[in-house]
Amino acid sequence: MHTGAAATEAIQGLSLPARMEAILYLKGRPLSLAELAEIAAVGREEAELGLITLITDYAHRDTALEVRQEGNRYSLQLRDGLGDLVQNLLPVDLSTAALRTLATIALKKRILQSDLVELRGSGAYEHIKELLAQNFIERKRQSEGRSYWLTLSEKFHRTFAVKADDLQPRPRAAKAKANNVEPEPAAAGDEAWQEAA
Known about the structure:
The protein is α+β, with helices and mostly antiparallel strands. 52% of the residues lie in helices and 14% in strands. It is built from eleven helices and six strands. The protein has helices at 3-11, 16-27, 33-40, 44-59, 83-89, 96-108, 113-120, 124-133, 154-159, 172-178, 190-196; strands spanning 31-32, 65-70, 73-78, 110-112, 137-141, 148-152. It has a three-stranded antiparallel sheet with strand order 1-3-2. The chain has a three-stranded antiparallel sheet with strand order 4-6-5. Strand 2 (65-70) and strand 3 (73-78) form a beta hairpin. Helix 6 packs across helix 8.
């Protein structure tokens, strides 16, 4: 299944406002209503209704986040006045967008750079450079193909106090059983990857 199709399928189980929230969070940049509708695989009017519900929801929550409108684009941002607090709390000097990209890599455990860029947008290339420069991720060329595998580094685990075991992917058979499908055969090099992780 194509990564874009897999992402669309994954968000179909969420309520429409939750879908809008997930898209705005993962993209990490302002999106137009048309972009939101396309990614959520819904009509423009339906996307607008979901977005209005989400904006109203955030307006009534005691939360540090808000949906912000900039022209005809929308983004999920920290409320005004919290920037200094965030800079004091972050253990590293990374932009919020780079941290979101790092969180996406952490959730996936191992992801192709091309898939990450599809999820996070072309700005992910700069985030990857930033994360590599600060040694939070590692990059290895794909054995077959033109992209790179991205994984978390030891520095990530030390800095964020996350054990490698906490981020281990489920075995293929267990994952396949949970999805009620036959397990896929391991791709070439996967065994070596599991041993190296």
